[in-house]
Design goal:
The protein has 287 residues and is an alpha+beta fold. The strands form two sheets. Strands 1-8-3-6-9 form a five-stranded antiparallel β-sheet. A four-stranded antiparallel β-sheet has the order 2-7-4-5, with no helix packed on it. The protein is globular. It comes from Yoonia rhodophyticola. This is Helix-turn-helix transcriptional regulator. One of its GO terms (molecular function) is DNA-binding transcription factor activity.
């Protein structure tokens, strides 16, 4: 398993205020477990107290400082492990929305703390022996960590359009259920009980993409995952994703990625390829 999937970094027992340097690749997201003490976030040094989980997407690198007496553990997460951890079930939409922006989740209940610590320990054990690393195990550990955070996370109330946010959440939930059936946007709107134009406005405003683009990106993300992680023939992948034949699937995929499915699979099979980072499925494929 490549280090490009995930890394772990322990930062224990700060004897004085100490800036954290994230020692993992650019573009990696950060999941930080503040086991105890105080974390200062950003240039304004906003104080957050442990035990708590914090997350920053790959494009967010706030300045982090451990105050004296604090300790922390950090996971560096690629887009690939995040997508694998989230999965493709109807409830996955809640995890997707959780990791779109930075979040903090305070572990006020003592029983949760040893559970989080154990999951980090398992992660560390998995990374100790490169020849035995299992992406399935690590993505499972990450999924449990994200679920634990989701259960105690309370989003800040910054929106005056909660109804629109709820429409978007329900739309994305429906997409998870039906993207393989290739529903038309009008059918999603009818099922949600909203006008087509309103659904379009909400999606464009909150994600920068139309409803159709969101559906297509979800299909593309799943296609990339299957091409990358399975040896299934294109005909089987096409059928599983709701295409009538491999030719239609290939045309759709190439229009979205500028590569045929076969060419994409060839690139991602070469870990040292210069094109891999740009072509590998990214979390941004399904915002």
């Amino acid at each position: 398993m490549q280090d490009a999937y995930a890394t772990l970094q322990d930062e224990r027992d700060a004897l004085h205020n100490r800036s954290l340097r994230r020692r993992f690749p650019d573009g990696f997201a950060t999941l930080l477990f503040l086991t105890r003490g105080t974390l200062l976030i950003g240039e304004d040094k906003n104080e957050r107290h442990g035990p708590a989980l914090f997350f920053w997407p790959g494009n967010s690198r706030d300045v982090l400082t451990l105050k004296a007496g604090a300790s922390a553990r950090l996971l560096g997460l690629s887009d690939a492990i995040i997508l694998d951890a989230i999965g493709a079930r109807s409830e996955s939409v809640h995890l997707r929305m959780l990791v779109e922006t930075p979040f903090s989740a305070t572990m006020s209940e003592d029983p949760k703390v040893p559970q989080i610590e154990t999951l980090f320990d398992w992660f560390a054990h998995e990374l100790e022996e490169p020849e035995r690393r299992s992406p399935m195990s690590m993505s499972a550990f990450l999924r449990l960590l994200l679920i634990a955070a989701l259960r105690v996370h309370t989003p800040e109330d910054t929106s005056v359009s909660a109804d629109a946010t709820n429409v978007l959440r329900q739309f994305r939930h429906l997409v998870e259920l039906h993207y393989k059936e290739h529903w038309k946007v009008a059918r999603y709107a009818d099922t949600l009980g909203v006008e087509y134009d309103r659904l379009h406005r909400i999606c464009k405003r909150d994600t920068g993409r139309s409803p159709a683009e969101l559906v297509h990106e979800r299909i593309t993300a799943e296609a990339k995952a299957r091409l990358e992680n399975s040896g299934l023939p294109l005909k089987k992948i096409a059928a599983d994703l709701g295409f009538s034949d491999a030719s239609r699937f290939s045309h759709f995929f190439k229009r979205r990625t500028d590569l045929s499915p076969g060419a994409y699979r060839a690139v991602v099979s070469r870990p040292d390829s210069d094109d891999l980072q740009d072509l590998r499925r990214g979390f941004s494929d399904w915002p």
